[in-house]
Design a protein that fits this description.
about 425 residues; about 10% helix; elongated; PEPTIDASE_A1; hydrolase; Plant_Aspart_Prot_A1; Peptidase A1 domain-containing protein; aspartyl protease
Amino acid sequence: MASSSSSSSSSLLLFLSLLLHLPSITSSNIITIPISHLPKNPHPDPHQHLSYLANSSLERAHHLKNPQTTPPHANTKTPFFSNIYGGYSIPLSFGTPPQTLPFIMDTGSDLIWFPCSKNYQCINCSTYHNTAKIKSFIPNLSSSSKLLACLNPKCALLHQKIQCPDCKLGSKNCTRGCPLYKIVYGSGTTIGIPLSETLHLPTRRVPDFLVGCSVRSTHQPAAGIAGLGRGPASLSSQLAVKKFSYCLLSRLFDDTNKSSSLVLVGGKDSVKKTKGVSYTPFVKNPEVPKKPFSTYYYVGLRRINVGGRRVKIPYRYLGPDKNGSGGTMVDSGTTFTLMAHEVFERMTGELEKQMKGYKRAEEAETLTTLRPCYNFSGIETPEFPSVTFHFKGGAEMALPLENYVAPAGGKNYHVEYDLQNERFGFKQQECN
């Protein structure tokens, strides 16, 4: 979700809801942790809610490809719930004694941060979230909470080319602290102090873990964010995770009591293919001076079929160029799949051709800002053309109907980020 500076036009951003893992624990230790809900969205009108999700997705897509400012930058199972605004959350415990808070899983950023101190400020967060109910971490209640020193190697995980005036390497008398971090997301920002804390997992304690103590945020959800990107400060990097996976729960655009497992795989054993999972190799990240681009997970989308017909899309819109523009990335922080205008028009044009027998719902398109929309009043069983994404290596993702027609619900997806073998995997399965 975070980003840095520059401008480039996006090609296709394949936003599949998140997938997470935790630390390296022996394969015999499978940990399940219950997930708590975040505040519900107050909008009962499904059109308003759908429009909110669509706009949030567009903001994030624009931010990922047009970053504004440079951000600071065994096996485990934990269940997670989908939340009203499209994200997924898990609880993590920090401090001594442990303080447990909800975190949104984000494959598009690195730093793990939580709302921090009794004076935590969240500006313009009350529209969709009750700030009075935001749970904050209290450093004064933790005996293991420490400010991160400027010379601490973990400070360099946040700030590239960090300089510590008046401090000499190896000096024991240097008291200068690690600089504040500022992270910019698609819809807001967060600012805070780097901490060294103890992360508690059901069967493992991880001391000296880098975490952000955010004291001021804007337009943020009522929870912290756990970055799972490729950067060194991410949860997966700090825990030396070799693979993380989870099952994508379909959503009915409301909060749900259903949950599924979040799995992190570490240890010394090599990661093997999972039975029934189709894999496509990760695409090498663009080598451009934009730190966020090195954080994202790119895959090689080769073509899109609608109703069995190949959509004619020039390849230049599907692969990243030398400047970092274009390409297809998998991101957990957005509800919808976002496409560049050139890709979207070609795909929807083919879909509209195959659905010309149905009446367009122009009012719904105006209310939701989405298209195409159709009126199926009086039609008991409407027919929809299939949609299939074809990836490098032969992997095919045939989207269940509920994944591209709203409202959704039904068949789910198991997703894997195999970091050791540099590949992305998926298969349809029931998450419960």
